[in-house]
Amino acid sequence: MDHFWTFAGSYWWLVFPLLGIAGGAARRWDVLAQRRHARQLEVMRAKAELKTVTASTRVTGGGQPQPITKPSPLPDQLEKLFAVHDDVTARWLEYELDVARMIAFPTMSDGRQPLTAAFLRAKKVADRLRPPTADARVSPEQLAEYRTAVTDYEVAFDLAERDARRVRDSQFTETERKRLATAQQLLSVALDESATPAERQVAYRRVREEVDGLLALSDEAVEILENKVALQIERPHPAPDDERGPASAGPRP
After folding, report:
1. What is the pLDDT of residue 218?
2. What CA dihedral angle connects 39, 45, 47 and 48, to 10 degrees?
3. Would you say residue 83 has pLDDT above 90?
4. CA angle 131, 98, 169 (to 5 degrees)
5. pLDDT at 70
6. I want to staple 232 with a disulfide (CB 3.0 to 4.6 A). Which of 14, 46, 167, 197 is the partner?
7. Cβ(160)–Cβ(122) under 8 Å?
8. Burial 143-156 (b: 16+ CB within 10 A, else e)
9. How far apart are CA 109 and CA 216, in angstroms?
10. CA quadruple 224, 225, 228, 229: dihedral sign
């Protein structure tokens, strides 16, 4: 015991750093506790939102009274689902048919990427379950199944788009990224109306060469790009007689 008090008397100054360490540990514990509490609140909020969404997607049961003279609400619900379905497809086509977007966000057109592949699968399901028209005969179960498919389709696209905008061209090598950057610059020249037709033609051909093997351009995307570039189609030279035309004919003797 005497040794302890001797040690304490010699190193009494250690009390202050130890108190600081203890205080820091206590504050750290409080921060972690607050974070755990915040995460618990987020989980509870997410569960509540999920319950709300699930309840809203349920089709009204037969136990609830429906006015006999009121038309079926199914066509209205289908039209709303069609609008969401078409909007997601239009957003996807902006990437699929725009070469500039494909170069800027290449993973949106790469089915090897997990999120893009999941989106494409969700698209197939939604397209397959889509009724032909809003007036088509569908059961409440079919309507609920299609609604779920459209929701999955929309969510899958949002996730794929966010990831594509986050990673951009980071999936490519340094050499491939330089090729994509060059293609982006050349595309600006090809679409520049102030450039000469020859400059635009050369830039367009270089764009195709730079993205070859990196991006899979669809025929529709190529056609749209060619229309934008307004490629000059070589016309056959007129025959000598055609060059003279009516003006070359002199007065008849």
Report:
1. 87
2. 160
3. yes
4. 110
5. 47
6. 197
7. no
8. beebbebbbbbbeb
9. 8
10. negative
